């Protein structure tokens, strides 16, 4: 058995190593049970997490929530037949029942030649320190103080801030062990901390709301609570007085926090399951240009402290740094072993999705991009999921700002933007240097040379 | 004691040896002079899912989730902790954490007497739906759906189908002495297809379900879903670009009621109105729709996906009038917000699971039938859009701006439905969209049982419905200028 030790365990002290050991032992028992019940092979993921959040609203504590979760998922294979089960109960009897349920299901599922564990020679062997485990010795009282500081900064920012949805401080730590009957067992512990705030502004009896948040695996890297509050307030204030614009076609800038959504639409279209089901607008486009020719999209699964960082994927396969799109050309799909087998390809180590997908940033900041655009729409919020993954048709509700002469003229609301993603990806003319690093998809602001805006 | 309560206790308490005196102990731990309200929510849920693609049922899964959520409320403050262990020590610990919200006081002794004979009309069967069909028949059901879809048209290239059943047992104890149980079944069948014609490919999907056993999916019903999914996909093969701009929109009956859910429903949930953050805050008694519009939220419809015999706080559900002949009448409440607003709970306190706090949520939200024949409504439109299917929606509660995404729509020209157009987002302003409803049809329909609503990260099943409706001016987010 290749034992994998969690990154950062030495600095964490109590908890991580022991947790992982206990979960690994449990995982071993699950796999042994599956074997005993006749399974040819199997895999399991066992996890435990805990944390808490506090919210303060209008200067008073609103909620204190303590979270504590655990879960066990097991998949068994009888030849090429599959069954899976999960439970939140770790008692011996419950685990026995769950494995049995998975085995029962496998009796009824069809023989599927592509089913099974990932190939043994693809299991991760190199384990880097990803620096993702930073437990925060935060007391509830300290969290309350931070939330107060955050909300106070927002509410005192401008006298048009009239109401608040509150400020929330959240800290969380999870440990997961994945093991399979190849003898692979890996353990990971990671933390996530955040401070967020949403406030409401009022002008001429019309209310607007906006928010801001900071989120990181290391609490030292969080923005200050007051800065989060001020950003939430200024983002709300700038929306006051919003109105519609006339229906038109014009350039559109997606501000960095919403630009990442374009990357997620891309991933949905190149995911193996969408390709082999022929449910993608990027079907059969391997090796062809799918983006403007200066666009590169890369996956960096080993970035220190990053949201999506991992040494191995959901099947134990080593993750790899790679360019998925290079100079606009689609190099490869996003595959786990099942869809790879369906397509006659190799897994790309993406069971569970892409990890830290980045669109290569350009040199301009958002203000420069606004100047470059001249006239058009700056989008700061998207609502509604109007994306057709089969055709690429795209239509979403937006709020943002109308730009003329390279400057913001007024806030905009109750309009939509529409196009087709196949075409939109090629219309990207600028990617900003203002990369939002909070999430698993990392993008600067993105300028498209034309979309349809529907309004009056 | 009611039969449901006995069943729930034997499912949840018996295996861990919990009993009524233990609850009293927990409540005395939870109660203090500053605690206005406390409750303990026990849940045992099991779910099974089967899915088919490429003509084969390739995978199935089974899951069990059980635990307890403990809440203590003091004024506007809420303390909450949960545990997926049901033993008394874990519960005592969770109770301590939840109670920390209130200033420390003396433990208060509480006598929790079950309300003998407190019966609720049962809106669904207590039978575990997972057991209502042998496993091999579940597999056959999906295979049948696949065949039905392929037989409908040779252009069908892919068929995916899934079958989900859930057995959910809940037990709510309140410090006011309430002890209420509910046993909730849920089944859902979904069929989606991809059709190919030359270079074009399109998708369509259909399905339904509700609080039934799996026998709800009769051969006829399966065929109906399969044909509907294929029909939608074929329509979209022919669709041209949708127009962009503000125009007359006619919405078909049933699922397009997602408009009401987004534009009206969320804005009338008690929490947003207590906090004054909704575009509808403080507007009870005002005219927000034309006189033809009466909108209700109704959790009492037997077997509907959004229905509950009692909500997740043990309050019996009801029909709540939201808008009556155009006038805003009421909000949907849970106990917490009702108490703070001096209102009565309306049976809308819902939570995704024991690990989530309850909040005001919709059940089945729909508009009552009007007087017009649907054909008459369409023939009244000179130029506009007729949208009959949607994939979902979203709303900004504070500004009132909402969207909902049409997945099947047509142009209406000279009073006639002429040609299909591609999917497009529709966007409007909740507080005034219903003031432009000029005709309400006599063909009220509820959806087939497919809706799931997300709020603050919590997902709950809901229903919507409406008759055909004409709106004079709504923005259509197409590409064609």
SSE inventory with pairings:
The complex is a heterodimer of chains A (456) and B (481).
Chain A: E1 2-3, H1 9-12, H2 16-36, E2 41-57, E3 60-78, E4 81-87, H3 92-108, H4 140-155, E5 161-180, E6 184-203, E7 206-216, H5 225-237, E8 248-254, H6 256-270, H7 272-276, E9 297-299, E10 322-326, E11 329-330, H8 337-343, E12 357-359, H9 366-373, E13 376-383, E14 393-404, E15 407-420, H10 421-426, E16 428-431, E17 441-442, E18 446-454
Parallel strand pairs in A: 1-6, 8-13, 12-17
Antiparallel strand pairs in A: 2-3, 2-5, 3-4, 5-6, 6-7, 8-18, 9-10, 9-12, 10-11, 13-14, 14-15, 15-18, 16-18
Chain B: H1 3-12, H2 20-30, E1 37-53, E2 56-74, E3 77-83, H3 88-99, H4 135-152, E4 156-174, E5 179-197, E6 200-210, H5 219-237, E7 244-251, H6 258-265, H7 270-275, E8 295-298, E9 319-324, E10 327-328, H8 335-341, E11 349-350, E12 359-360, E13 364-367, H9 374-379, E14 383-395, E15 401-413, E16 416-421, E17 424-429, H10 430-433, E18 437-440, E19 445-446, E20 451-455, E21 458-466, E22 469-477
Parallel strand pairs in B: 7-14, 13-21
Antiparallel strand pairs in B: 1-2, 1-4, 2-3, 4-5, 5-6, 7-22, 8-9, 8-13, 9-10, 11-12, 14-15, 15-16, 15-17, 17-22, 18-22, 19-21, 20-21
